Amino acid sequence: MSNLERQLAERFGFPAFRIGQEDVIRNFLEGRDVLAVLPTGTGKSILYQFPKPYYSGAVVIVSPLVSLMMDQVEQLRLKGVKRVVALTSFQSVGERKNTLRNLHTFDYVFVSPEVMQTEQVKHALKSLHIGYFVFDEAHCLTQWGYDFRPDYLRAAEWIHKEFNKPLLALTATASPQARQDIKNLLKRPDMVEVVRSVDRPTIAVESIVVDSESSREKEIVQQITTLSGPGILYTQSRKKAVYYAAQLRKKGIRAAAYHGGMETMDRTLIQQQFSLGQLDWVCATNAFGMGIHKEDIRQVIHDHIPTSVSNYLQEIGRASRDGKQSFATLYYHPDDVSKSVYIATSDIPDEQDIQMFREMEIGEQKQRILDYWKTKLDDKHLVELFEGIRSTKQRDIYSLYNLLTSSRCIRSSLVEAFGESLSERPEICCSNCTNTLLAKQSLKLKDQSQIDNSKLDYSTRLAQLFP
């Protein structure tokens, strides 16, 4: 047993490191900045807790979601870590002032990128003795469109300018290009990369074509009411999220809708209810998932083509954190790809938006994007930047669509998109592999006496198989 393993057992009660953890910790303790790309459920809190005794000062964790921060604060406190606090938009003026006044008493300080931009918080952090910084969900630095977070970039720039401290960046999924982008945006080009395979052998991947919107809705509701949960249903529109949740409740399923148009407190409540097992299904737009600390998600369903392979893997990766057999099912129609391209690119400013900025209403998202980039580039280079982003978005969506609809092994194609090769296929692999049909041998039928396999098509048979 190594010295690090002894510490892991003594301090955290774990007999061994999970995949990639020791490499991240060892490199960081040797004084290197580290970008860790490890599968969901690897135990990222260990990565920023373990080095704490080796560094004098507080650990500052930049986190993109209030619900994610609150969940991590709660988990730390449950493990006996009391000197932890989150600086969030939920705090009243009095609470914020009190926290900042006593900031030096905390070992772990979570802060959102937006809150970090306030002068009070900047002043308090500059006065704080900081050991190192952590960027959680670091892939958000590279996101564009509906989820663009200019304050995440501003936070990275400010930290680079004001502090010379070690930096740890964490994410579950990042392509080689995304990893390079993260290092460039953090101004740490020499960061050590610790990257583990994106493959999740216990998640069977399905891609099922439908002939109409009504048949898609029917099949999704049938699958959810036939199979065991918990699960997440991802859809592209707020209206659809509400619709699916209502349909499931009619069937007696404990379900709720989740989307960006809801109040922050309501979204946080739904995440807590889902995490605690008070809800079985959440019907959500892409905004849902990063704050979820839930081991037993059995299904992730998509009714659309996501915006990239990375986003798709992020979303399906929320299943099977406990290592038990789970399914990721995507229902698609050939028209979906053009719809996804439109949704993914509609908030990217065009030349007219750039010229009319400040003179006319261009939409909140475009306003946020231009508020940031107008301080960086002139109009000519902005047009070039946004055209490039638009082309990249379109290419990413078509790449994922082609991957999911080809006759090749979907799992192999997914890992190859990240420069990997699949060394071994699990018995229950994907809907293009014949061994997927062996699911019957390892998954318990809900009611085997009622299933006549000779009269059911593939998708219906598989929809009635589950542990």
Number of strands: 13
Q: What structural category arises from helix and sheet content?
A: alpha/beta
Q: Helicity level, as a percent range?
A: 40-55%
User: Helical segment tally?
Assistant: 20
Count of individual domains? 2
Order of adjacent strands in the largest pleated sheet = 3-4-2-5-6-1-7
What about the largest sheet?
A: 7 strands, parallel
Gross morphology: globular
Strand fraction: 5-15%
Key attributes of the depicted protein:
467 residues; Rossmann fold; 6-stranded parallel beta sheet; alpha/beta; 43% helix; 2 domains; 13% strand; single chain; 20 helices
Write the layout of secondary structure elements.
Blueprint: H1 3-12, H2 21-29, E1 34-37, H3 44-49, E2 58-62, H4 66-78, E3 84-87, H5 93-101, E4 108-111, H6 113-116, H7 119-127, E5 130-135, H8 150-162, E6 167-171, H9 176-185, E7 192-195, E8 203-209, H10 213-226, E9 231-234, H11 238-250, E10 255-258, H12 264-275, E11 281-284, E12 299-302, H13 309-316, E13 326-332, H14 336-345, H15 351-356, H16 364-373, H17 379-405, H18 410-416, H19 439-442, H20 458-463
Parallel strand pairs: 1-6, 1-7, 2-4, 2-5, 3-4, 5-6, 8-13, 9-11, 9-12, 10-11, 12-13
Helix pairs in contact: 14-17
Can you characterise this structure?
There is one protein chain. This protein is an alpha/beta fold. It folds into two domains: 193 residues, Rossmann fold; 137 residues, no CATH class. It is built from 20 helices and 13 strands. The strands form two sheets. The protein has a seven-stranded parallel beta sheet, sandwiched between helices. Strands 8-13-12-9-11-10 form a six-stranded parallel beta sheet, sandwiched between helices. β5, α8 and β6 form a beta-alpha-beta unit. The longest helix has 27 residues. It is globular and about 60 Å long. The relative contact order is 0.11.
